[in-house]
Design brief:
9-stranded antiparallel sheet; about 450 residues; Elongation Factor Tu (Ef-tu), domain 3; 4 domains; 27 strands; mainly beta
């Protein structure tokens, strides 16, 4: 089977893009239509898919989507009450699933990643025979905002990521919140949430088997009534993730994760190289290094959490680095930086445990990279990647006469050399795929 890295080594490659939707059915049973409805030939511009966590701020989660610009010459994207509308026989566009598939096509006409075989320039069979949607998935989201029409017969389809479905449902719908559950048990309750007719709330959007929930042991006694979780389910999830020093994300194939950030770091998923380094396995995939920095804004040597509503000394738990002037401590080198937050679900013991976990993440200076690369759709959040990049000072490597170096000894050379090197292991904390230009960008954080 052809691997993505075998194709990205080439100077040019053929790519594919597809967009499909699934509309909600009318009637008491609800649910979605069985097959995906292809809207690829309607797309005028594809936009950018962006996914990130903690790129700009520690312990932050962003729900980024994309906006598709589509043709509406035949009125298919008109409002539901129009007979030409794609939603005329269905429910409104709200929570319509949107599925974006992208990737490469190898020399045998096989999609990579994925498994669809093409004959000439067309997919073999009208039902996309041999297609492997999960493997070639690049984005799975839903429509939740207004569809915007204009006089140019264009329509903007704002697509949100699948995680956004948790923003609209209040956590007060959860039953059996008794103060005896762990975080993972509460996440399971969210997964199993049903309505008054025992119909799953999220089952048609994320299947039961697609929930990856890491087991936790801390019990949250303050979450003992429905009123104690009077917030959107998304807020409940992110606060539980904060309490356990975990992350919440969904892969492009629709798999939900509630687990440690280090889960995907046991093996290297990709090796990034620049033109000045040699990598026969992956080739040169870095187009440019847009940012390379020591991320001092995410160093915290003093952690303070408020665990009680009362503003007293006993309401706070603090963990801080001891230091003296002139020593080698992080506090002296980078300054004593405080990470302040509130979580009244914690007690003194669980708060101290959490502060220790956060300290392990934030007490050392880690380098971060923002790079532009060839199109690499296979990488996921928190994947482990390897960097091998050397920036050359090409401005002083020698004098040029016309298009040729003057003499073999590079007469007039100014010394030249490496400006900086980036080597080592990093984790993916964000990525952006430009589906119009078919190129990628990644945010990486150093693994120490």
């Amino acid at each position: 089977m052809t691997l993505t890295r075998q194709i990205t080594k080439k100077n040019t490659s053929e790519v594919f893009r597809r967009a499909s939707i699934k509309r909600r059915l009318t009637g008491a049973s609800a649910g979605y239509e069985t097959d995906w409805f292809d809207i690829t030939n309607k797309i005028k511009s594809w936009g950018r898919i962006r996914t990130e966590t903690e790129v700009h701020r520690f312990n932050s989660f962003r729900l980024n989507g994309l906006t598709l610009r589509v043709r509406n010459d035949d009125g298919q994207f008109n409002t539901k009450d129009d007979g030409s509308s794609l939603w005329n026989a269905f429910l409104t566009p709200y929570k319509t699933k949107v599925f974006i598939e992208t990737g490469y096509i190898d020399d045998d006409g096989v999609e990579v990643p994925g498994g669809a075989v093409r004959w000439g320039k067309f997919l073999w069979g009208g039902d996309l025979w041999g297609r492997s949607p999960v493997n070639s998935a690049n984005f799975l989201g839903v429509l939740t905002d207004e569809i915007i029409l204009n006089a140019k017969n264009e329509v903007l389809l704002p697509v949100k990521p699948m995680l956004s479905i948790f923003e609209d449902v209040p956590a007060t719908r959860l039953s059996g919140i008794t103060g005896s559950q762990t975080a993972s048990e509460i996440i399971i309750k969210i997964r199993d949430l049903v309505d008054a007719n025992s119909v799953s709330i999220f089952g048609d959007l994320i299947s039961t088997g697609a929930w990856d929930i890491q087991s936790t042991t801390t019990i949250y006694p303050d979450l003992d009534t429905t009123e104690s979780v009077d917030m959107p389910i998304w807020d409940l999830m992110t606060r539980l993730a904060e309490s356990e020093a975990k992350a919440v994300w969904i892969d492009p194939d629709g798999t939900f994760h509630f687990r440690d950030r280090t889960s995907n770091q046991s093996s290297t998923a990709w090796k990034f190289s620049g033109v000045a380094t040699h990598n026969p396995e992956y080739g040169h995939t870095i187009k440019s290094i847009d940012e390379y920095k020591e991320s001092t804004s995410k160093i915290f040597t003093r952690l303070r959490v408020k665990i009680d509503e009362a503003d007293t000394e006993a309401s706070y738990r603090i963990k801080e680095d001891s230091w003296d002037v002139g020593d080698s401590s992080t506090s002296f080198i980078y300054g004593q930086r405080t990470y302040d937050f509130e979580n009244t679900w914690l007690n003194t013991s669980t708060a101290d445990t959490l502060l220790t976990k956060i300290n392990n993440e934030t007490s050392q200076a880690k380098k971060e990279i923002k790079l532009s690369s060839k199109f690499i759709p296979a990488l996921r959040l928190f994947d482990r990647v390897e960097m091998d990049y050397v920036s050359k000072d090409i401005a002083t490597t020698g004098s040029l006469w016309g298009n040729f170096l003057w003499d073999d000894s590079l007469w007039g050379a100014g010394g030249g050399g490496d400006v900086f090197e980036i080597r080592g292991n990093y984790t993916v904390i964000g990525f952006e795929h430009n589906l119009d230009r078919m190129e990628s960008g990644f945010y990486l954080r150093e693994i120490l």
